[in-house]
Prior knowledge:
This protein is of the alpha/beta class. The chain contains five helices and five strands; from the N terminus they run H-E-E-H-E-H-E-H-H-E.
Amino acid sequence: MLMHQPLLENAARRPDAPAFRWVDRDRTLSYAQAVTQMNRMAGALHHLGARKGDRVAVFAHNGLDYLIAMFGAWRIGAIAALVIVAIGLLPVALLSRAGTTRRTGARAAAAPPI
């Protein structure tokens, strides 16, 4: 079973039910919202050149952005290479120039807006 498949199946069965809840920010995504965001992220990653089997570096604090980036990578068959954020979020362009994507072997990077 693919990692994103249960999300798709639950969205088909009960689209308005809560899928994810970020307690710290009092934010919830329904299954339908989660699938929509996952597909948008998958499309963005594909546009950046990520393909099945590629690694996608995910730079985010624990939360919904982190989950959506992972599910987006899985949706296109890519591997989510999770990067621990120890020094704060930097724009993806800076992370790429710093060699972070090269060191992880990632073809693309996903990070929430700052």
